[in-house]
Amino acid sequence: MVIVIDFGGQYNQLVARRVRECNVYCEIYSYKTDINVIKEMNPKGIILTGGPNSCYEEGAPTYQKELFELGIPVLGLCYGAQLMQHILGGKVERADVQEYGKTEIKVDTNSPLFKDVPAETTCWMSHFDYISAMGPGFKSVAHTKDCPVAATENTEKRLYGIQFHPEVLHTPEGTKMLYNFVRNVCGCAGDWRMDSFVETQIQEIRAKVGDGKVLLALSGGVVSSVLAALLAKAIGPQLTCVFVDHGLMRKNEGDEVEGIFGPEGNFDINFIRVNAQERYYAKLAGVTDPETKRKIIGEEFIRIFEEESKKIGSVDFLAQGTIYPDVVESGLGGESAVIKSHHNVGGLPDYVDFKEIVEPLRNLFKDEVRKAGLELGLPEFLVYRQPFPGPGLGIRIIGEVTGEKVRIVQDADYIYREEVDKAAAAYKAEHGVEAPWMPNQYFAALTNMRSVGVMGDERTYDYAVAVRAVRTIDFMTAEAADIPFEVLQVVMNRIIKEVRGVNRVFYDLTSKPPGTIEFE
Ligand code: XMP
Q: DSSP 3-state assignment of 196?
């Protein structure tokens, strides 16, 4: 295992993900973590992340010098690199020229960090301080026009520092540099793989659960589906999945979930589908305020789950789809503060009679959850499903939700996704790479607006559908995707022809901020 010590930078989870992409397991810990805890874990390597501070300032995050004397290889990134020098006798100062963005860099290919990296390459810089002098035993192994020490090393003590960010995609050789550190310098074997993860988790779940009963609220999203599949493989019929169809899912989705996990599917579990569509529509009748809608949808879910779990009686375990970013963001792991506003199944534990929680996915990133899903035999369409909000179409229908409006938005959304997927597949087949406009999230929404149109010789007065597609990395900021106009035209024609009640289609160009990804 490699340990990532978090100094509060924005890319910290990305560092951990890249390390795992090198098939090396790693975990993130705050810089406040006691050194004895780190020593006990006996990691093969330590990575210090970036952070927003200046290491020479009073009260800036720091670490004991002993960390560098354990004989464990250490790699500092950005702030981490500066801090290493600051502690080990070098000097860090405010730079005259602040480097930000893609920067040309020359690296010393004799350095173990830069094995197989071209001598001249590009890196992503983001710093206002720089290393003006190195501590004893260190030498510079990379430089840019404005930064004489873009990387340092003390090979004898196996201490390394990189001023730029190898973890971001803008540093094209970055993953190779991290690979060089964890696999070559630290000597990690690289045997962290999803098949072995699935196998060990199955054993662990069996050991923990014994012959106990486990209850899971299955939403049909990626995480809860992978969790269901994993538990199903481990304990089969000891698992009961409750799937609440709130009538706000995408077209056919309820039946797809039932097809996979229900009696006709491949898993030998208890599957309870609650068809609560009418119940939800009744609760939502006349409600237009977005937050009130969210609240009603969330509360109704808890009521239904409570009723179902009463029927089942007491269970031994409640399964939860906690994943690693939740663990880090809740402050148990790392340092960087992320404000999390959406919880799909918030508050469930209070309403169910159970003894313990099982969270077998809590050490995985979302992309690893997907890989585990494929290992478990889940279909690709499910595993690579785009994000879908807990309140579902309830927040993609502006204003009051009705069964009729749900039908309209479901049908329009289905056509839109089908055409985008088709165009994306055609692009890939022709060019061998993913289309540059391929969105991370794309869907139709129903505006609450009706307008006049003409169809045949008839005047119409129908709804306007809005289609949206965004490109985003973190879903905190996003840009409208540049879907080819021909594709949008096909979408518009098909929606108007095939979806009764729609006579206009808008394409949403708004970025986030100022817009949000969803409409409500
Ligand atoms: P916004 O609309 O906030 O969306 O820009 C950012 C991401 O979060 C999803 N989203 C939600 N997910 N419950 C959820 O589980 C919600 O209430 C909710 N609202 C937005 C949205 O789909 C996007 O991926």
A: helix
